[in-house]
Design a protein that fits this description.
Low-confidence stretches: 1-12
Strand content: 5-15%
Mean pLDDT: 88
Distance between the termini: 68 Å
Oligomer: single chain
CATH class: Mainly Alpha
Radius of gyration: 41 Å
Strand order of the largest sheet: 2-5-7-8
CATH architecture: Up-down Bundle
Number of domains: 1
Shape: elongated
């Protein structure tokens, strides 16, 4: 019995493991491939696409308001107690002129079926609404493009963080290996009585710090991968491998700095959104002005009704009476105690404000581009400086190591050179990430 239970548990565990492997997917992406994936599967991008589709449906809803509208209506009434109508003098049947006679008009069962066609003939508000629906759709199309740009920048940043963590781990492992050997050699020298124990302890402190930073970088790599997965729109449980290298991406972006295009504010998505907002305010102004125009509508009714004292409307002998009519409604605003004028002036003020905001947005974007370009240029200069400093720090650390081994330098001087090297290594890695991120910010402004 125990063997059977163990066999069943083993089989269940194998089945669950196989199922998990089926649902988990694997991805291997370069930065460009990751961006293409995110622009299709990122959660915000997906919902932005749905907003566009909803805006298209809203546009058709607005268009349909001016097209023919047909409504059907069927009503039935059961007069189980007919209303009595009083008539003085017996009415057409004669009688005492001072007497009051009552009569019941109608039948016990009434049924009516009617179809109504409504058609808007002219309405200035409807014409403006059609223009506004196009602007409404354009707004969400621009919002989608803005989302795409933001997601692209997020992917670049998240991808870069993964590469940064990977490179940090590689450098820390190299530093750890070198330092462990130095500590071991120093211990042997101490055992031979050639140096003081403080020299060993100083190096052990440095080694403990390297181990701590290595553990932290390993944890950060997992977090960076998960952030990238979320940005790409894939499950955290999926497997992801990044194929680009930090150095190659840096060199690619440094080369792109030589071919920078002139900033065209009209291509910037934020400027286009501001332009769209101005257009909306202009249409709102037109809408208020159009309310002073007459509106004209027409309707046509076609119907049948029938009356009976017995419910036999579905009998072939039941008589149905047809009727039809045509109606035209002309509405002309005459006087509103200047209410329309006040609303129109409010809309005009809002329109003027939108024009001012557009001018402000243009100037701010030009300043933002100049600032972003300056930061990108500085990141390239910073990268060159960090690379040069790294070469110097490596030579200084190497010289101090030789001096320490030969007993010409203290452990404090050697440890200080090591800390300077480790700090310079991280600065060099960060300078490469800065180039990639600043280039992404610049491209977003250029709507690339």
């Amino acid at each position: 019995m125990i063997k059977k239970n163990l066999l069943f548990i083993s089989f269940l565990f194998f089945a669950l493991s196989a199922k998990a492997q089926e649902t988990s997917q694997s991805y291997s992406y370069s930065l460009d491939q990751a961006i293409l994936h995110a622009l299709e599967h990122n959660y915000s991008v997906i919902n932005a696409g749905r907003d566009i589709e909803a805006a298209r449906q809203k546009k058709w809803e607005t268009t349909a308001a001016g097209l023919p509208q047909i409504d059907g209506n069927i009503s039935y009434m059961n007069n189980f107690s007919l209303q009595q109508q009083g008539v003085t003098g017996g009415g057409p049947f004669g009688g005492d002129p001072d007497s009051i006679s009552t009569f019941a008009f109608g039948t016990k069962h009434n049924m009516n079926a009617v179809a109504t066609l409504n058609q808007l003939l002219f309405d200035g508000s409807y014409i403006v609404a059609l223009q506004a629906s196009k602007t409404y759709l354009k707004y969400y199309e621009n919002a989608k493009r803005k989302t795409d740009g933001e997601v692209k920048e997020m992917v670049v940043n998240a991808y870069g963080n993964v590469l940064l963590a990977q490179e940090s781990i590689a450098i820390l492992k190299k530093n750890k290996t070198t330092l462990e050997k130095t500590v071991a050699d120093t211990k042997e020298t101490f055992k031979n009585g050639l140096i003081e124990e403080e020299n060993v302890e100083q190096l052990q402190i440095t080694l403990a710090s390297v181990n701590s930073n290595l553990s932290n970088s390993t944890r950060l790599l997992d977090i960076a991968y998960n952030m990238l997965k979320i940005t790409l729109g894939i499950a955290i449980s999926d497997q992801l491998v990044v194929t680009d290298k930090l150095e190659s991406l840096t060199q690619k972006n440094v080369g792109a700095a030589l071919t920078q295009e002139v900033f065209n504010v009209n291509e910037n998505i934020d400027y286009q959104i501001a332009t769209n907002f101005q257009k909306q305010r202009e249409l709102e102004y037109k809408l208020e002005r159009s309310k002073a125009l007459p509106t004209l509508a027409a309707n046509v009714n076609f119907g049948y009704n029938s009356f009976a004292n017995e419910f036999n409307f579905f009998s072939t002998n039941q008589k149905w009476l047809d009727y039809s009519n045509l109606g035209v409604i002309l509405r002309v605003p005459i006087f509103s105690s200047f209410g329309y004028r006040a609303k129109t002036q409010q809309a005009k003020i809002a329109f003027d404000q939108a024009k001012t905001q557009l001018n402000e947005a243009e100037q701010k974007l030009k300043l933002q581009y100049a600032t972003s370009k300056s930061e990108f240029d500085f990141s390239i200069e910073e990268y060159a400086t960090a690379k040069s400093n790294l070469d110097l720090a490596e030579r200084i650390e190497k010289k101090q190591q030789i001096k320490f081994t030969e007993g010409l330098s203290s452990s404090f001087d050697f440890s200080e050179a090591q800390r300077q090297l480790y700090s310079t290594q991280q600065n060099f890695l960060q300078s490469m990430i800065n180039i990639i991120n600043k280039k992404a910010s610049l491209e977003k402004l250029n709507n690339k």
